[in-house]
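Researcher: Let's try something more involved. This one mixes different molecule types, so please make sure each is placed in the same coordinate frame as the others.
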Amino acid sequence: MKKMLPESELARDERFVRTNIEDRLFDPRGPKVAQRNTGPARMGVDRPAAGERSRSLMHGIFVGEIQALEGAGRTCYDFDDETAPFQLKLDMARQCWDESRHCEISVKLGDHMGAEIGEYTESTFLFAAACNPDPVLRLCGVNRALEGLAIDVFNSMKDFGNESGDPVLEFCEDWMLADEVTHVKMGSDWLRRLTATDPERRERALEFQRTVDAIFNLGGFRGEDDENPIQLARNFRRLAGFTDDENDSLAALARESTVQAREMAEAASAALHASAQGS
Amino acid sequence: MTETTKPRAPFAPWDRRELPGLFAVEESARRVGNYKWAEMRLFEVLGGWVATIPELDVKLMLGRHTYHHAWHAELWHKRLPELREMNPDRLTVPPNDAFVTFMDAIREPEAPELTIEKLVGVYRVLIPRFIAVYTYHLNGTSTITDAPTIRSLKFALQDEFDDWRDGEMLLQSLIDTPEKVERAGRRQMDLERLYLVSGGIAGPGSLGEPVEEVRVS
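Model: All components are placed in one shared frame. Result:
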């Protein structure tokens, strides 16, 4: 078997439908949706679409967990013993087991919430971050950026479970949250160890992490305002080893993305309005 | 009141452990190094295969088993310095080149249509041999002097038996046509031939007396 499997070769059964991140961002229906005043984006039980949105998010978690499992597995395989130390591979193998359990949990939770496998599309950007040929950059992109995002997602879902009176959802999200904190700590630990004598490589890895973080802030998906569906979980991030400076800078990046998303939506709405006037 | 000064035998009457064993320290360390090498190559490929397997139940099982074999490798890694091998990497080696050829063949399938070939290699050829070689070591080594190895062997064997059952059940559910029976059989035969040439996970003598060199055309 070859080393370095491209994301296009991820194996799925016929239920799965793949989209790419550009298709989502430039979906022509987006501006029309943005014209509607649907209120705060933060997940709330009083929102009419709360059930649908939480099912969609749960499916997103499920496919994200599959890719996290695949990414950790590839890190066990793709590198020789010199490029990736034995202990790093052991951590990745442990992560495989954790992600495998998360897949099981999210399939059962999806079922519990009324969603079916393949009901929503899958974007494979998470696995793309796990294809980086440098194990340090790979761990920074996956274990610090994406698993950090998972902390925010699981915390938001846990709160949603609590507010909606769903103890099963709250219980499971709390367990997965515990694992994600561990995964982020692994990422931080290996970043420190493998770049102890190579500050340039460390900076490259952190820059890659910022790029991945920025992509998942796109469209104001994550932040600290009511406009953001997923809330930044500062306390759990702190537990996972992120400094307050790192959390502040991520929050600032998220605010910037939210403003950009708002401006893009306004511009698209204006363009739609103008074309409607002209016709 | 308990009589604290009354002498008691150091071994209870039912404790039948004995000092003699088949392996000296060096031989035990050599075998443990071979086990670690094989468990490493196995957990790496199980992890690598996850992304190439479309069947969800198989994918998730491999994620779980990846960790089991990584943990076994870690157990052997920690045992090596206790067997006077202060540089564990020195003994983390295959027993011979033929065993490398065998492991390369186990790890070779990649395409998503080859799940049966992947699983047959691991669950019908390699893991049954891990069970055999670990059991041989467990039954043959000194039950007193090599007790730490025995403890690790028992943990590893528990996983191997459970994993073998998981893999075999999935294989039985995947092999649902006469053509697939033949595919599985051919794959098993090809790999067993290569294994035979290598002499086993710990080389010739993996299960006892060193055997004559075997040539298979």
